[in-house]
Sequence to fold (568 residues):
Amino acid sequence: MLKHLGIVGAGTMGTGIAQLAALSKIDVQLYDVNETILRRSIERIKADLRKMINLGKLPHEEFTAALERIRTRTSLPDLGHCDCIIESVIEDIRVKKDLFKHLDANTKSTAVLASTTSSLSITSIAALTRNPERVIGLHFFHPVNNAVLVEVVKGYKTNTETLDRAIEWVKLLGKDPIIVKDTPGFIASRISLPMFSEALRLLGENVAYAEQIDNIVKKVGGFSAGPFETLDQMGIDSALAETESLYDQSYGEPRLRPHPILKQMVESGLLGKKSAKGFFNYEEMK
Amino acid sequence: MPKTPSLLTEKHDLQKVKVPHSQESYKSDKALVYLVGEAPMVEQYAELCIAHGYDVCASWNKSLAKKQNTLSSGIIISSTVPENTSVAIELTNIDVLTKKKNLEKLAKALPETAPILSSSITITATEQSAWIAGKHRLVGIAALPTFIDKSLVEVAPTIYTPMETLEVVSRFFLTLGKEIEIVQDRIGMVLPRILCQVINEAAFAITEDIVAPDDIDKALTLGMHFPLGPIEWAEQIGLDQVYAVLTALHTDLQEERYRIAPILKQMALTGVWWKQSTTHSI
Fold:
């Protein structure tokens, strides 16, 4: 029976999954090394639940019940009894590899060990574990509470039992799973990549300006945001890091090659909305 | 006027194009639009022009026996280009030889005052202008099935296009309820190049068996907020059109990144559509 969920990392993603699980009546052990981060995470969940109550989306009595289902932890062994552990720490392969080695050694052997990575290889993350067959990817989309889809990523050694149980977990959380092989960018990021890489090439080749490209993509393509608006929103540095990671993992597949414009912008401190300047200027919004 | 391309910073010293000077004059005169090219773009543009008060005469590269009954009654089907045509639109992306013949015919039949809009996503408008006399009349547009009912159209002037022609083209599209975005005259222009590359990537993913084909559209629409998934888009645009754009991009840019997924090529050339194929064993 799937009952206990462990979450490692109480950042935006970890917090979102904890809230989702608590609302799905699942007991959550939310771990982070930093107590302040855990406190902030719980405050964020409280604020979100209050909003839901005000909008009539959540009965008042569920507020306390949901919060009681979440236990904050600063010691990893406290997650040892969990049926599934979902990791959402920094996107650094060394950190994740070490973490999964530790989780593999200190959790019950039937537990599913899942990573929320959006760009790293599940096979690599599982490489230092003794039981790579129980390691799997669960790529949630932003915002966790509203996005209905989860990519369930099968590593090279992930077994069918782990896959079936991971799918069960995803469904328990009210999400729609799609099964994907462990390849650079999985499926959604990889297929949407040309939207950004071609837009950057069009800009680099001076075929059109960024605002023109966005305008065309929105008005003809029917997208709610253009590629450059989206890059500014996600952060140019994050976009560069993700595309560099995909390019490296694919051993230089030309279709996944990052564009020099991104690097120049990062080196010039033009990081998008967060630095008030990216492809567009947001200084007035400061 | 929009800012790009740089070639259009000054007016060209060419013969002025005499065309109606306001959108009203198009309508009050019941100006005639002549359309020639591939289905379904010809009928889509024909319906759009008729709906906005134009007289329309249309011709297809291949016979359209099945669909003629479904066209609005005002649309005249004729391969003869009427002398009183105000605007001609050539809508061929796949068969470039036929496109050349169509443009040569239009250029001969039409007065030098009538602008010729020509789809320029698989061959640039500038290259097309080399085929005809009265080059100042020719302007490239991004035409693909499904793009025609949108509120914006990409327009690419050639190196011969004077501002006057562009202004006329802009007014013409305004009467069809469309704004224009002027971009450089390059293969694929903007959205066709982006979308066809997205579809190509989806085809590679199918080839590599990364995901069930039915889940691709789900991943893109639900995960990445695409209005349509690449498979649905390929179906609406037509794989033969997508293949024509990708082939032109690969030939023009000569880069590995524009290599076409083998499965997409096979499907386009055999006419086996994506969804039908996925029910088999891809």
In short: The two ends of chain B are 48 Å apart (CA to CA).
